Amino acid sequence: MNFTAAVIAEFLKGTVEGDPKASVHDVSKIEEGRAGTLSFLANPKYEKYIYDSQSTIIIVNEDFKPSRDIGATLIRVKNAYEAFAALLRLYEQSNPKKSGVSKLASISDSACQGKDLYIGDFSVISDQVFIGDGVQLHPQVFIGENVKIGVGTILHPGVKVYEGSEIGAHCVIHAGAVIGGDGFGFAPSQENDYQKIPQVGKVILEDHVEVGANTTIDRATMGATILRKGVKLDNLIMIAHNVEVGENTVMAAQTGISGSTRIGKNCMFGGQVGL
Question: Is 170 a catalytic residue?
């Protein structure tokens, strides 16, 4: 599918500098630009590539001032990074969505299913599960009893959701993640061993949460482990029992959060942070 600079600029509410009829059919990094592709420049350290890039169209910030001539057509916007991300989302949404329920899936008669679902091969949906409209469960997903999954949420292959967990609308959970496993609770006894403390709480993920591959979020000992709206977790993150993570907080890979920790809104965690 081809898009002209004029059409892209209209969508992004930007302005064209160059040929408004210039057309692209793919995207590329600015340092690897090819004819017929769209790139962007947001970080000044990459400016050196824009002068020799073969990309047909390049998105730049409104205040960008080139030091010499540029062969590509430019689209000036307020924030080039956000604009490019918006185009990628539009491109992704244009791809056909999977649909239909596999005959190889195991679905309890007491489960409540919405419309326009995709349920892949060998997925298991247990008793009293509620699944909202437009949910996608890729192959080998396991959903335990009394789980709730909101509208438009996507669970990638091999995700395991333990009983009682609640997942909001438009969440994305990547392959191998485990939601609602037991918290790490053991009490030392007089016999010099450890007695397991039953973990009877649950996990709540609010809307627009994303969970990376092989990340684990433990159920609460009592009450709930909660990830508020818009939280984004990278791969290989550990969220322990009774943790609460505030809205729009992001965490990079291998972060570990100890039990009962409280994290506020809009926090940013680099890789391997431990609390």
Answer: no
